[in-house]
Amino acid sequence: MAVAVALFAGTLLGPGLSMAGHPEARRLYVDGEKLFVAKQWDGAMAKFTAAYAIDPVPIFLFNIAKCLQKAGRDTEAIDGFERYLEEAPKATNRDAVDRVLHHLRKKVSASHGRALIRSSPSGANVFLDGREVGATPVRTWMTFGRYRVRGRLKGFTDAEEWLVIERGKRASLSLKFVAPDAPGHIEITGVPPDATITFDGVQIKAQIRDGTVRWQASPGHHELTVTATGRDPYRAKIALKPGQLRQIGVALEPIRALPQPSKAFPAEGWALSVLSVVAVGVGTGLIVAANNAGVEARQYGATASNRTQARYDQLKREGQSLEVGAGITYGIAAAATLSALAVAISF
Q1: What's the pTM?
Q2: H or E segment at 281?
């Protein structure tokens, strides 16, 4: 089919009347043109899309983009017009299309940003927040915000990344696919120089450099143990994805000394303490008795009979004996107290 140029504002491009073209594609074009005139944009676009599948010439891409523009689907219309110019770089209506693209881009840039999503390998189905948007490479307009991008490619593990769309910035993202059995890597930091690292029961021989150790491991679930002299061990269960670099910081705390059980106070100390208390009590009793004897002796000394004199002398001797006994008892108490104190200090 040849390309015949119509006024851009007028509407569509169509096959030259002197060219036969592909009969079915020509019929679909005519049907689409009727629907376009009737302002049935979706129906017209479906006819042009089917015609392009039969006879992939740029005029149908232009007409599809025009339907999208008329339907108010500006971001899709931009993509459509750009694709048209890529396939028809010398199109005679290029200047007009560029002007429309400039207008549409300015219009949508107030609320949308442009994103380019690639993958390695290419051809992956792309999902934005769970909605499929095409196969890589994907060029699309998106409202400002943060999106979860998931790529799916047969024979590979799904790839997932975050994409942020900001005003005035073009966003790009590359999804990297790895085989389901691709090995990953474990990297641990904060490792003491004398540490022993055990991974799934096998000691890791990798060299510790600046407290960091890294080694390759198969995807799956693993157990990690790090031990060092005088420190509590570090243990963790690790899930490693294909091709993943898993970074882990370990902190081996010094082993805390167990508290020593308290010792019982020696029986010797308790005995000396009791003896001291008893001796003080006995000594106090003797002093009280000596004082009483002295009071009574003074009463008898006030009378001048032989009988009272004898009683006076007896009470005086008893008082003196009690005072001596009290002194001895207090001495015993003092000695016991000092001995108990010495036992307590050495305890």
Answers
A1: 0.51
A2: helix 267-301
In CATH, what number is assigned to the domain containing residue 150? 2.60.40.1120
| Residues in the chain, total | 347
Residue 128: pLDDT band (50, 70, 90) is very high
Question: What does the radius of gyration of the chain's CA atoms come to, in whole angstroms?
Answer: 52
Q: CB–CB of 66/10 below 8 Å?
A: no
Query: Which two three-digit tokens encode residue 86?
Result: 């890529």
pLDDT in tens, 48-65: 999 999 999 898 999 999
Contact status, residue 184 vs residue 240, Cβ threshold 8 Å: yes
pLDDT at 147: 94
| Domain count across the chain | 4
**Nearest CA-CA partner of 232 in 248, 250, 211, 253:** 253
**Cβ–Cβ < 8 Å for 121, 177:** yes
pLDDT tens-digit map of 219-269: 999 999 999 888 889 999 999 988 889 999 988 888 876 666 666 667 776
- Choose one of 177, 201, 223: the last residue of a domain: 177
Pick the closest to residue 51 from 18, 67, 27, 68 (CA basis). 27
Q: Domain ends where: 177, 199, 222?
A: 177
Phi, psi of 308 (to 5 degrees): -70, -30
- Domain of residue 11: give its range: 1-108
**Cα(216)–Cα(202) distance, rounded to whole angstroms?**
13
pLDDT at 279: 64
86 assigned to some structural domain: yes
